[in-house]
Amino acid sequence: MLTRRSWLLVSCGLVLSSPAKAGAKAAGLQVFVPNNSVGAIAAATCGQGFAILVDGSLRPTQIKVNGRVIDVGARLHPPGAQATATFLDDPRSAPKLGVNIRNALAQVYPRYRDQLAANHKAWSRTFVRKILTWSHKLEKSKLRGKRFNNTLNRAAALTFAGAKIDPRAKSGGPASLRRLPAQPAEPTLSSYTTYIERIVLALA
């Protein structure tokens, strides 16, 4: 049976397989990102017609498109975390980052505006439900209300778990957090989702 959700996914798939996608590939469109976390959100928003490439010289909230460096860090959650390389350890920033990337690319490549909008709607709706599930798992975290410094550069993950960041605190976080990688293995949404699930498991 074709449910509304299935229809939406099929429709979005048709958008990604449209001539616009083929045209994007032919044009060799590239989006440079600072790391795999930002790359995952860029890849989900752009679709397969764009090549996502990591450029470590970019700041955590910058992307580079058509030779232009664009800051896409406006109005992320939590406030102030956008300056750190691991700000996407708090996945609540991801949908808004996707909006910022969508808008930035639509300005540079207006012909792909509808494609970018459809892509972002398709992935972000499902991802928001995942955020709610993760948030529910962290409601009973033993870290909630506790204070940690940011020596591990994991402020976003700790904040997502309900902890407080205090530079005077003695600990940077639990050992389980120390053992985690600093970013997903690949710049894909599935890899980023797995990465966040590992963070939630470590902090729950």
Would you give an account of this structure?
Helix 3 crosses helix 8. The protein is globular and about 50 Å long. It has one domain. The protein starts with a helix and ends with a helix. By secondary structure, the protein is an alpha/beta fold. It has a 4-stranded mixed beta sheet with strand order 2-1-3-4, covered by helices on one side. Strands 5-6 form a two-stranded parallel ribbon. Helices cover 49% and strands 10% of the residues. Strand 3 and strand 4 form a beta hairpin.
Number of domains: 1
CA distance, first residue to last residue: 37 Å
Portion in strands: 5-15%
Shape: globular
Order the strands across the largest sheet as they lie in space: 2-1-3-4
Largest sheet: 4 strands, mixed
Please specify the SSE layout and strand pairing.
Layout: H1 4-16, H2 19-27, E1 30-33, H3 36-46, E2 51-54, E3 62-65, E4 68-71, H4 94-108, H5 113-138, E5 147-148, H6 155-160, E6 164-165, H7 175-178, H8 189-203
Parallel strand pairs: 1-2, 5-6
Antiparallel strand pairs: 1-3, 3-4
